[in-house]
Specification:
2 domains; 12% strand; Double Stranded RNA Binding Domain; TTHA1013/TTHA0281-like; single chain; elongated; Type II toxin-antitoxin system HicB family antitoxin; alpha+beta
C-alpha cells in the first residue's frame, strides 16, 4: 500500500540519483546503492511532508517495475499516512484533529509530521477517533 519503489540513475557526479514514480517530488542522492537506499526513507518522509504542507492526499504505491527497489517504511510512518489521508477524505484540517483529540497544537501537529517521531499509541488513538483501526501484518523478508 505504501511501500514505494525507487530507481537509481547515474548522476554526472560520482554517485546515484534516486527517483520514485509515485512521489515525483522525491529527490535524493547516494554515494553508492547502499547509501542511496539508506537515504531513501528520509527522502520519502521529507516528500510526504510536502504533501501535508500542500494539503494534498498522499498517493498509494504502485507495484514495482523492473529495475526498481521497494522501500518499506516504518509502521508509524504508514499509520501517519493513513491518518493524513483520512483527514483529507473528510476535509479536516490539523486544527480539527486537535479539537477532536483535545490536544495542544504541537501535539496534534506532530501526529501528521513525518519528520517527527511520534509514539505509535498516539497515532493509533488519532486513527481510532476517526473510526479507523490499525492492524499489523508480518511477512517473511
Amino acid at each position: 500500500m505504501y511501500n514505494y519503489a525507487i530507481r537509481f540513475e547515474k548522476d554526472t557526479a560520482p554517485g546515484l540519483a534516486v527517483y520514485c514514480r509515485d512521489l515525483p517530488l522525491l529527490n535524493s542522492y547516494g554515494d553508492d546503492e547502499q547509501h542511496a537506499v539508506s537515504e531513501a526513507v528520509d527522502a520519502i518522509e521529507t516528500t510526504l511532508s510536502i504533501y501535508v504542507d500542500e494539503r494534498k492526499p498522499i498517493p498509494e504505491a504502485t507495484p514495482p517495475q523492473e529495475g526498481e527497489r521497494v522501500i518499506y517504511l516504518p509502521a508509524v510512518t504508514v499509520a501517519k499516512i493513513v491518518l493524513w489521508n483520512t483527514m483529507m477524505e473528510r476535509d479536516m484540517r490539523k486544527a480539527d484533529l486537535r479539537r477532536l483529540l483535545g490536544v495542544h497544537q504541537v501535539q496534534g501537529d506532530r501526529l501528521v509530521d513525518f519528520l517527527h517521531t511520534s509514539k505509535m499509541e498516539q497515532v493509533e488513538a488519532a486513527l481510532a477517533a476517526l473510526g479507523k483501526r490499525l492492524t499489523i501484518a508480518v511477512e517473511a523478508a
